[in-house]
Specification:
Blueprint (H helix, E strand, L loop, with lengths): L1 E12 L2 E12 L3 E6 L5 H8 L7 E6 L2 E2 L5 H7 L1 E4 L11 H8 L11 H10 L1 H5 L10 H13 L5 E5 L7 H16 L4 E4 L3 H7 L2 E6 L2 E7 H5 L2 H8 L8
Parallel strand pairs: 3-8, 3-9, 6-7, 7-8
Antiparallel strand pairs: 1-2, 1-4, 4-5, 9-10
Length: 243
């Protein structure tokens, strides 16, 4: 079953035509990688799914229901979480306050599901350590972990994550891979944009590759990882060069 389906999605931003008919399916319980060169339309695809930019044509269905005409709050309420490339955390608020805001069912921290919070602390121990510290004081890796933690503080049917490893040191990326693998083991459905191909290979079940505002390849991540000629054709580089 596909949790998310895009069919012929086009997006215009002002005078610019960015997406030129995107077809994409995200199966339930899998991590689907969305790859492509810079400027291919990956971030625009995520923002269009979330309603931050409106699709000018085509259809977006979430659990079979059209969402392309809905506002962003409605889409979030339906069960889609979004971790933008900018992370979207509130630097002046504490880690606790950031998490409380993300937990829609909680008006205060004490109302966050305790079992789920302990599970999150197991994934991201630094968040427990810096629970009462301003989020703006966290390191880059810790901010990224907070951004992901906010997305999973309540069960979500789908999580969209945009380049979580960008700007992070290799050791922090490895920690992030381990945390996302744990989410994957829970059969969390994820659509993940990523330029780090080691992360893509480690996490991806399926893969879609974009170029010039379209999906030009879709298949299994393991097959792409094993085919250097296809990597060069689609991405201009090989996964093996990025281990």
């Amino acid at each position: 079953m596909n949790v998310l389906e895009l069919e012929g999605v086009q997006t215009h931003i002002g005078a610019y035509h960015i997406l030129h008919g995107v077809d994409l399916a995200v199966p339930e319980g899998e991590v689907t990688m969305l790859l492509g060169r810079n400027g291919a339309g990956k971030t625009t695809t995520l923002r269009t799914i979330m309603g931050l930019w409106q699709a000018s044509a085509g259809a977006i269905r979430f659990n079979g229901e059209p969402i392309h005409a809905k506002a962003t709050p409605e889409i979030a309420q339906a069960g889609i979480a979004y971790v933008p490339e900018t992370m979207g955390i509130f630097g002046d608020l504490t880690v606790q306050e950031n998490m409380t805001l993300a937990a829609r069912a909680a008006r205060r921290a004490a109302e966050i599901d305790g079992t789920r919070l302990e599970w999150i602390f197991g994934l991201f121990p630094a968040l427990k350590k810096f629970w009462l510290h301003p989020a703006g004081k966290l390191s880059g890796g810790q901010k990224q972990m907070l951004a992901v933690a906010r997305a999973v503080v309540e069960p979500r049917a789908l999580i969209l994550i945009d380049e979580p490893s960008k700007g992070l040191a290799p050791s922090i990326i490895n920690n992030l891979i381990a945390c996302l693998k744990e989410l994957k083991s829970q059969r969390t459905t994820v659509l993940l944009v990523e330029q780090n191909f080691n992360m893509a290979k480690a996490l991806g079940d399926g893969v879609a590759v974009m170029d010039n505002g379209r999906v030009v390849h879709h298949g299994r991540m393991a097959e792409l990882a094993a085919d250097e000629a296809l990597q060069h054709k689609l991405l201009g580089l090989s996964l093996g060069a990025h281990q």
